[in-house]
Automatic annotation (TrEMBL), chain A:
InterPro entries: 2Fe-2S-bd, 2Fe-2S-bd_dom_sf, 2Fe-2S_ferredoxin-like_sf, 2Fe-2S_ferredoxin-type, 2Fe2S_fd_BS, Aldehyde_Oxdr_Iron-Sulfur, Beta-grasp_dom_sf
The entry's keywords: 2Fe-2S, Iron, Iron-sulfur, Metal-binding, Oxidoreductase
MF-aspect GO terms: 2 iron, 2 sulfur cluster binding; metal ion binding; oxidoreductase activity, acting on the aldehyde or oxo group of donors
Origin species: Sphingomonas baiyangensis
Xref: PROSITE patterns: 2FE2S_FER_1, 2FE2S_FER_2
Gene3D superfamilies registered for this protein in UniProt: 3.10.20.30, [2Fe-2S]-binding domain
Domain 2Fe-2S ferredoxin-type: 1-75
Protein name: 2Fe-2S iron-sulfur cluster binding domain-containing protein
Domain of life: Bacteria
Pfam family of the protein (one): Fer2_2
From TrEMBL, chain B:
Sequence ranges assigned to domain FAD-binding PCMH-type in this UniProt record: 1-222
Pfam families, per database record: CO_deh_flav_C, FAD_binding_5
UniProt protein name: Xanthine dehydrogenase family protein subunit M
Keyword hit for NAD: no
SMART domains hit by this protein: CO_deh_flav_C
TrEMBL record, chain C:
Protein name: Xanthine dehydrogenase family protein molybdopterin-binding subunit
MF-aspect GO terms: iron ion binding; oxidoreductase activity
Signal sequence annotation: none
Domain Aldehyde oxidase/xanthine dehydrogenase a/b hammerhead: 40-146
Family matches, as InterPro entries: Ald_Oxase/Xan_DH_a/b, Ald_Oxase/Xan_DH_a/b_sf, Ald_Oxase/xanthine_DH-like, AldOxase/xan_DH_MoCoBD1, AldOxase/xan_DH_MoCoBD2, AldOxase/xan_DH_Mopterin-bd_sf
Organism of derivation: Sphingomonas baiyangensis
Matches recorded under SUPFAM superfamilies: CO dehydrogenase molybdoprotein N-domain-like, Molybdenum cofactor-binding domain
Length: 176, 325, 740
């Protein structure tokens, strides 16, 4: 089977039953993506497939041969962190660190969903795209953190979201 | 997980031609099927991957409604402009379900086919008539906090876990299928899921190999739409009770009402008596109480789920107030 | 061999060197030093080490909760392509996980089955997929035995256990008379359910043998005692076993002692001559590691008309497996939190066929303070005294059970600062009297207290000619911040920027540490680093020809008088020293504990009984705070455990067979993002000279202590409904809510 992960090609022949998560962890050496429950109940395995966040434990690797998979390793490196990764460090958005790659990948996907104007369960109106803290909490609720860094994660995401919004506004003003 | 043969279908026709054989399952999002396969609650010998079929669009129907491809992800459906505008109860139901990640993967068709979250169904060493017909029901006499209070049988008290399906039941959606012989079939959502009776392992009216291709919604209903979900934590939990309500008030009277309930039964629950208690009446607590009585007249708790009966009553009355305010 | 600078805490620390150092890095809210690795997915957890010819193990569970295994039928499993073998060892497997800190193997032998899910065999295969399939095909044939599956109705079978962290029973004065003579009393029963730590990283061990030496990469919290347990279980000498845990994905008590996957992997690896990795599934973590016991608690308070407590009774029944001594010490804080001459604190065990019960975050306080702090709220109401004031009235002069002084105690100050910050005075005092739309609004308060413990701990610190320091100890970092705070201590002591300190943890090849448990990790392992650095400072002073206390170390330089020399130039080819801290008489002569106060606002839906925590103020005093950022995170984490305890977490056992019914994260409800509000966390300045040379006390379990009680007190304030059965799910409120 052939896979494209973080822009790199991989050819491996795993068992047909191999989940995308186990492909990453056991077959291509990308152990940044974590297994917490293996049943879509914790979010630790969250990766981006064609830019959308999904639980990599609940999908078969074989079904993703035509997809672009992005894992935590594809977002940034310890020496060159993605803005969300850096914000998580600054705000102490983790303790043990095990759910963290999933939280960060989820946040990347979530911010993209919010930027598209997708509403959430707590949106006052289905057309209201304002990303309040309550919105961040609801949209990130698929990622459990048992150390419970939740308030710090919200702060980290808030900072990056506000920065991106400010950049967008500057860009729009410049375009205008 | 048992091993299986895997094949990717190139067309819906090819999928159904291939899909009727014993032990064959379609896989799309896979979020429920793989969950169950890992525990060997599901043990298909063959998976047909339908995830790349051209069934992922949402289009207007000639009748003025909406046709939703079976592969439209829950997230996309919730965010779809027309759904948000004309069928907010559906958007709200979808957004109340699962997590952002799961909604990105779970498909419309798959959501309808979700299996119960009954604890005993998930444990292959427990008695469960749904998983192992004839083995008994461990939930009766066991811990049954999340189980059904309506339409149960002495064989099974499981609930259907979907939020989306509850909204679709209120919207009177139609499930469109393709059968192995190439025929199409249109099934009212109300008829799509079955009550457990003596055959709780048979959950829908689908025939072997029959593939859901679309779900059609009728034109946008009149009135206000609300989805209310009550659960054990603020997010990412299945419904204890949920209500999809669509009520129109004209000239001070309830002109139409459609109410569907989740968390209470083996299927999205609709009861004409509930709606009959409302239509033509002045909105108010008197009519709402009659509707609640109608809903729960035959309700039966099994111990740890007894609370669902008063909870459903209170939530229904409050939701009706919101719908008619 | 390096020098060992030892200290036994027999007397208070007169003057900590840290009171005089000038690097100014200790206590600062610096980022976690390992943070960039963790956020980039480059921190290597135990399941992620690769080995040649690594085989995958999958545990097989006992399907019934009592009986004897007659046969393990494995032919079908062995026929699965990729399955290498199905291995069982009725005598060699461990029945259950071990408790933390024990030095011997846990209960051995699995032919007799004591709980559903007891691991009885392991399938080993070339792939995870094959091992999992094989495990499902193994038939464990049992002859059914009689089991006892719950406490309910069996309270009179409870037995007094051996004394544990505290005496099982203690009595002073005459509680019954105090109750009879009191102006106001509370006498009620509380129940708390079984809980699971639910660390997001499941238990895992990779076992690899080199001859007769075993290396385990395992997700464990206390490596030096884990190593002793494992060696004993396998009949090895301690020196033959090495355990490595560079990063641990949460523990909360569940990884204190070795668990069944560890011994099974080791036995399988030995038998097959290959390294074997065994990761527990989430369901196995629930069934076959450790739970917090369910508790039945009777709490009695007697007070005079001024609110002064004259009696406290706290009688707890817990459950555990046959043969296990551990009891959840629910009365731990009741011994010293409030004054009162007549006291009775007891713990008894009912034997059950259920998963082992053992330590989970703040064993004792986490559930015992629920009853105590709810009862204080009830007493405050009975006396019409503000609950903050009632606690202030009952501040004891000294430990009321042992008649020894407190080392330091700032509970009253925590309550005062918290009340002011939260706006406690402005709250509505009438239960059910404040409403915001559909939501009933309530406010609650509870005290927090967690005993402070010191454990033997050693560390080695070296300084290189480049002027860098290296800290080595088998301490673990389970999210507690060990890498960071040990680096800060060394940096502060040696006058180095944090970047010049490397901390190496999680390997029994390093000096043995206290491990992560009981909130003692920072104080104990931090003290060992302090002591090693103290020895290094003496060496540096000698080589600089200065008096040790006339020496200033800052920014990588030694300074004395008008001389300033790079540190590296004073260490020759490098210097090293070991530090060793030992608990001493201070553990007996004074009562040491951290304190805090929780204030919260909850909203309860008037129709459905759904509860949302909306606001939180927590004020804590725990001696010297070693890193304000990680300390704050620890407190938040504890409080969120309290939210789960109060509202959602209940590991349900089927009364018919003891099985864990909701053994996954979909149905065992830990709090999610949406359940947790912003939190205002504050620390009071405090130094505790009796605790350790850092003058710091434990903080990891302080946040959870009392937190759930504050929520349930707030629920009462919101609704007028007292619920004494945890968790307070909506079904327990609905009958008491306003009619719709």
């Amino acid at each position: 089977m052939h896979f494209t992960i973080n822009g790199q090609s991989f050819d491996v022949e795993p068992d047909i039953r191999t989940s995308l998560l186990d492909l990453l962890r056991e077959h291509v050496g990308l152990t940044g993506t974590k297994k917490g429950c293996d049943h879509g109940q914790c979010g630790a395995c969250t990766v981006l497939v064609n830019g959308r966040r999904i639980n990599s434990c609940l999908t078969l690797a074989v079904m993703h041969q035509d997809d672009e998979v992005t894992t935590i390793e594809g977002l940034g490196t310890p020496d060159d962190l993605h803005p969300l990764q850096a914000a998580f460090v600054r705000h102490d958005g983790f303790q043990c660190g095990y759910c963290t790659p999933g939280q960060i990948c989820s946040a990347v996907g979530m911010l993209d969903e919010a930027a598209k104007g997708w509403p959430s369960h707590v949106s006052e109106s289905l057309d209201d795209g304002a990303l309040t803290d309550e919105e961040i909490r609801e949209r990130m609720s698929g990622n459990l953190c048992r150390c419970s860094a939740y308030p710090n994660i919200v702060d980290a995401i808030r900072e990056v979201a506000d920065g991106a919004r400010d950049e967008r506004r500057v860009g729009e003003e410049a375009a205008a | 997980m048992k091993s299986f043969d895997y094949a990717r279908a190139d067309s819906a026709e090819a999928a159904v031609a291939d899909g009727g054989s014993e032990g064959t399952k379609f896989i799309a999002g896979g979020t429920n099927l793989l969950d169950l396969m890992k525990l060997q609650v599901e043990t298909p010998a063959r998976l047909i991957d339908i995830s790349r079929l051209d069934l992922a669009s949402v289009e207007a129907t000639e009748a003025g409604g909406l046709s939703i491809g079976a592969l439209v992800p829950n997230a996309d459906l919730a965010a779809h402009e027309v759904v948000r505008r004309d069928y907010p109860v559906l958007s709200r139901a979808l957004l109340a379900g699962a997590s952002g990640q799961l909604r990105n993967k779970a498909s419309t068709g798959g959501n309808l086919l979700q299996r119960t979250r009954c604890y005993y169904f998930y444990d292959t060493t427990s008695a469960c008539n749904k998983r192992a017909p004839g083995s008994g029901c461990a939930a009766i006499g066991g811990f049954n906090r999340i189980m059904a209070v309506l339409g149960t049988s002495d064989q099974c008290i499981a609930t259907h876990p979907s939020d989306m399906a509850v909204a679709m039941a209120a919207l009177e959606a139609t499930v469109v299928t393709l059968k192995a012989d190439g025929d199409r079939r249109r099934i009212a959502l109300a008829d799509f899921h079955r009550l457990p009776g003596d055959t709780p392992h048979i959950e829908t009216v689908l025939e072997p190999g029959e593939l859901i291709t679309h779900v059609e919604l009728p034109p946008a209903p009149k009135g206000r739409q609300v989805y209310r979900k009550v659960r054990d934590r603020a997010s990412y939990a299945f419904a204890l009770v949920s209500i999809a309500g669509i009520v129109a008030v004209e000239d001070g009277r309830i002109a139409s009402a459609a109410l569907a309930f989740g968390g209470l039964a083996h299927k999205p629950w609709r009861d004409p008596a509930v709606e009959a208690a409302l239509v033509g009446h002045t909105p108010g607590d008197a009519a709402f109480a009659v509707a609640a009585d109608a809903l729960l007249a035959d309700a039966r708790g099994f111990g740890s789920n007894d609370f669902k009966i008063p909870l459903a009553r209170r939530t229904l009355i409050a939701t009706l107030r919101e719908l008619t305010a | 061999m390096s020098d060992v600078n030892s200290l036994t805490m027999d007397r208070p620390v007169e003057d900590s060197i840290l009171n005089h150092t000038v690097q100014d890095v200790l206590g600062k809210p610096i980022d976690r030093v390992e943070g960039p690795l963790k956020v980039a997915g480059k921190a290597t957890y135990s399941a992620e080490f690769g080995f040649d010819r690594l085989a995958h193990g999958f545990l097989v569970r006992a399907p019934q909760g009592a009986g004897r295994i007659e046969a393990i039928e494995a032919d079908a499993a062995k026929a699965v392509p990729g399955v290498i073998d199905v291995i069982h060892d009725f005598d060699g497997f461990i029945r259950n996980a071990q408790q933390g800190g024990e030095t011997e193997a846990p209960t051995m032998g699995v032919r007799e089955v004591h709980y559903v899910g007891q691991p009885v065999a392991i399938v080993v295969a070339e792939s995870f997929e094959a091992a999992r399939e094989g495990a499902a095909l193994v038939t464990v044939r049992m002859s059914a035995g009689d089991g006892d599956f719950g406490i309910e109705g069996r309270e009179d079978e409870a037995e007094k256990p051996a004394d544990g962290m505290i005496p099982a029973h203690s009595d002073a004065g005459d509680l019954d008379k105090a109750m009879a003579d009191a102006a106001a009393t509370v006498d009620a029963f509380w129940t708390t359910p079984s809980q699971n730590s639910a660390a997001i990283e499941p238990h895992v061990s990779i076992a690899e043998w080199q001859g007769d030496r075993l290396t385990v990469h395992g997700a464990y919290q206390m490596l030096s005692s884990d190593r002793q347990q494992l060696a004993d279980a396998l009949g090895l000498e301690e020196e033959q076993v090495r355990i490595v845990a560079r990063y641990v994905g949460g523990g909360f008590g569940s990884k204190l002692g070795i668990a069944p996957e560890c011994v099974a992997a080791a036995i399988a690896a030995k038998q097959l001559g290959r390294p074997v990795k065994t990761v527990m599934t989430r369901q196995q973590v629930f069934e076959a590691t450790v739970r917090r016991s369910d508790t039945h608690q009777r709490l009695r308070l007697a007070a005079d008309g001024d609110g002064r407590l004259t009696g406290i009774g706290h009688e707890t029944i817990v459950s555990n497996l046959e043969g296990e001594d551990f009891f959840e010490p629910a009365g731990l804080a009741t011994h010293f939190l409030y004054a009162g001459a007549n006291r009775r604190v007891t713990h008894d065990i009912v034997r059950v066929n259920r998963t082992l019960s053992g330590s989970m975050r703040a064993p004792g306080e986490a559930v015992g303070m629920l009853a105590l702090e709810n009862a204080m709220d009830e007493l405050a109401e009975a006396l019409d005294i503000d609950p903050v004031e009632l606690r202030r009235i009952n501040e004891p002069e000294q430990d009321p059970s042992k008649d020894i002084p407190f080392s330091s105690r700032k509970l009253a100050e925590c309550l005062d600062e918290g009340a002011a910050a939260f706006g406690w005075e402005q709250r509505n005092r009438t239960p059910g009297g404040l409403r915001d739309g559909d939501w009933l609004v309530g406010h609650g308060v509870a005290a927090s207290a967690r005993s402070n413990l010191l454990q033997p701990s050693r560390a080695r610190v070296s300084v290189t000619p480049e002027g860098r320091a290296i800290v080595e100890t088998d301490m673990t970092d389970i999210g507690t911040g060990s890498y960071t705070i040990l680096g800060q201590i060394a940096a502060e002591m040696l006058g180095l920027p944090i970047e010049a300190v490397e901390v190496r943890l999680g390997d029994t090849d390093f000096p043995p540490a206290a491990g992560s448990g009981g909130s003692w990790g920072a104080g104990s392992s931090g003290s060992s680093v302090y002591l090693a650095c103290e020895a290094l400072r003496a060496k540096i002073a000698a080589s600089f020809d200065a008096e040790a206390d006339g020496l200033t170390l800052k920014d990588g330089h030694a300074i004395a008088g008008n001389r300033r020399v790079p540190l590296g130039e004073l260490v020759g080819e490098g210097i090293e020293a070991e530090g060793a801290i030992e608990p001493g008489e201070m553990a007996e002569k004074v009562n040491q504990a951290s304190y805090g106060a929780h204030f919260c606002e909850v909203h309860v839906h008037a129709v459905t009984g759904e509860v949302r925590v909306k606001r939180w103020t927590g004020v804590f005093a725990a001696g010297r705070i070693l890193n304000e950022k990680t300390a704050r995170s620890q407190c938040i984490g504890g409080i969120v455990f309290g939210i789960g305890t109060a509202l959602t977490e209940e590991l349900v056992h089927d009364e018919r067979d003891g099985k864990c019914v909701n053994r996954d994260l979909a149905e065992y409800h830990v709090p999610v993002h949406a359940d947790v509000p912003h939190m205002d966390i504050r620390f009071l300045v405090e130094r505790d000279a009796a605790a350790n040379p850092l003058m710091a006390k434990g903080i990891g379990e302080l946040g959870i202590s009392g937190a759930g009680a504050a929520i349930v007190n707030a629920i009462y304030n919101a609704t007028g409904v007292r619920v004494r059965s945890y968790p307070v799910t909506l079904d327990k409120l609905i009958d008491g809510l306003p009619p719709v």
